[in-house]
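pinging the channel bc i need a second pair of eyes. not urgent but kinda urgent?? the chain im working w is below, pasted from the shared doc
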Amino acid sequence: MGKNKHRKFADNETFENMVQAPRTDLLENGLPLKGKWHKEFFKNDKPIVLELGCGKGEYTVGLGERFPDKNFIGIDIKGARMWRGARTATDNKMDNIGFLRTHIELIHNCFAKGEVSEIWITFPDPQIKYRRRKKRLTAPDMLDMYRQILTDDAIIHLKTDSQFLHGYTLGIVEGYGHKVLDSSYDIDRQKADNELLKIRTNYEGIFRDKGMTITYIKFQLSKLD
């Protein structure tokens, strides 16, 4: 491991806005902050919004800048990448932004029912191979897991360069009785004035440089029985 990564991991240990949750600890005990994010982490009752697979945290920080009346948590397992977002939020004293380093498939061990009001999924790996379909962040099992932590009226956003994942997600959402609120196969043509979609990540820049089209879906899950 390079010195730069070592430095970033060391910094992550000092950031007040960074929570690191090892897999074994979550499976055995759950996260101590579960059900207490408002009271003990943010120290307010503003709605909590998650960005799944946040990478360097560009979307988490961008949303936090635009919506000071909400709390934002970027989630990823790549600590060296997350360092950038945590560093930016720390330097700019953005107290409505946090980062959680853990595996996304374990977030139900990190949040209580109704603790999260919104989810952003930004440029995830589409996991095109059939044998990895359960790893897709909009797979049925993943959506069911999100329902365990979301409010009943919560919104989920998917922004992706993958036409495959866009179509797959529309099929899953509609096929499982959830509600599509908005959909665009090309945000530059159809959503050019949408401020939420103007935030760009490092990966989006790479995909755009390759001439790839950016798509978007906004949807709402059906209530648990």
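so The chain is about 35% helix and 20% strand. and The first strand starts at residue 18 and ends at 20. — does that match what u expected or am i reading it wrong
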